[in-house]
Amino acid sequence: MKKVFPVIVLLTTLSVLGIMFIQMQWIRNAIVLKRDQYIRDIDHSLTGIRQQAYKDFLERRQLTAAPAALKEFALQTVFTSQIFNSEEMRQMVDRSLKHNNIRQPFEYCVTDFLGNPVLSTSGFRSEFFAQSHNIVLTPPESLLSEVLHIYIREPRNYIISQMGWMIVASVIFTCIIFSAFALTISTMFRQKKLSEVKSDFINNMTHEFKTPLATISLAADALNNDKVITDEGKIRYYSGIIKDENRRMNKQVERILQAARIERQDVKLHLQELDAHEVIRKVAENFALQIEQSSGTLNLNLHAARHKVSADEVHFNNVIFNLLDNAIKYARENPRIEVETQQHGHMLAIRVKDNGIGMSKETQSRIFEKFYRAHTGNLHNVKGFGLGLSYVKTMIEAHGGKIRVESTPGKGSTFTILLPAA
Question: Best label site of 196, 279, 386, 403, fewest CB within 10 Å?
Fold first, then answer.
């Protein structure tokens, strides 16, 4: 799976990039084709203007029914656009452009063989010549040639605007494809992480249950020993071991079930006014022997003026217990743990600081996720399900509070809880 996953991501990425590249090339080619079509339409319009001018000229000279040779001779020798006035020529140009689907405003000018204007619209200026579309109105053999110059007022990015709906649709669908791709990759990464978390959880659960099961098995075998059966003291001793290990397993199962209830939001809080300092002292007393055996210290700096909170007694005790338990689990050989309380406006701040192994930035960003364990979940032989801090965060937020962590690898961690003071 580890080898297949990068290949899938690579192939999918190449496919999406290829589709986007082809899409962009298609849009680019479509714009070029549209520009070419536009130029052809203008050429057709210019040709249509010249043919219409010849037709109107012959009608005015009453040569419509004349032989073709006579018509050609008349056009070559006497044709001139000056038989039309400015408005007539403007209408002729307008009809021809609209016939070819060109409806932009325009200005025109007809110049003689010396380049002098003979007909034009009032808005035509000399600088328009450089950007005009031109056609010679007189026949090739005519001695007095005349040229029609048409300047079309095109808005900026006219061709692109003509294809606006097509480009917008292409961009939208491209964005949809890219978004779907990003969502797919994100989902794949999430599924990969969930798979790793699941594997870690199963491994940790196996370790957590393996030890008490092995102990129960050994104690049960001992109870069947002939020497033990006749010794009431040993029977009580091994029975006590079985009971303690069974209680330990039940406790682990309860933690998993409790996490499931929290996820279903099936936990009801029984709020009451509690003295946070008193709760912290009681929980700290439970760890006194463990700290002493590790040659460590647990200092309580409880200085908050307002230290009563409205909280569920069981869950609040569990929150403090989990934080201290983690501080001891991940501590060095001689743990130094400090618990401090301070007043922050209407909030009570509880800080738990240790001198443990610390956490990386990535671990800090995910430490409150359910079942999450740093790396494989076996770091420094610390076992667990990755439920403790997830439970702490959920309970603190359920009480209207916040929790944050500050940590440096190799230097320890500090967890800060903010709870509304009662």
Answer: 196
> How far is Cα 346 from Cα 252, in angstroms, rounded to an integer?
36
For the chain, counts of helices (H) and of strands (E):
12, 11
* CA atoms 59, 65, 68, 69: torsion sign: negative
What sign does the dihedral 126-130-133-138 (CA atoms) show? positive
CA distance 165 to 148: 34
Q: 141-144, long-range: CB within 8 Å, 24+ apart, which pairs?
A: 141/76, 142/75, 142/76, 142/77, 142/79, 143/77, 144/80, 144/112, 144/113
Measured distance CA(207)–CA(383) in Å, rounded: 8
402-408 vs 412-420, strand pairing mode: antiparallel
Q: Are 121 and 89 in contact (CB under 8 A)?
A: no
Query: What is the spatial distance between Cα 417 and Cα 393, in angstroms, rounded to a whole number?
Result: 9
Task: Please state the pTM of the whole predicted model.
Answer: 0.46
Measured in degrees and rounded to the nearest 5, phi and psi for residue 36 equal -60, -40
Give pLDDT tens digits along the chain (422 positions).
556 767 777 887 888 788 878 878 888 888 888 888 888 989 999 999 999 988 988 888 888 888 888 888 888 888 888 888 889 899 999 999 999 888 888 999 999 888 889 899 988 888 988 889 999 988 888 878 899 999 988 766 666 666 667 777 877 887 888 788 788 888 878 787 777 767 666 766 666 676 677 778 878 888 888 777 777 788 888 888 888 778 767 766 766 666 666 655 556 777 889 898 998 998 888 777 778 777 888 889 888 888 888 888 878 888 888 888 888 888 777 788 899 999 888 889 999 998 888 888 878 777 877 666 665 444 444 555 566 787 788 888 888 899 888 888 888 889 999 998 87
Which residues, 6 or more positions from 354, have their beta carbon under 8 angstroms from its beta carbon? 327, 328, 330, 331, 335, 336, 337, 338, 412, 413, 414
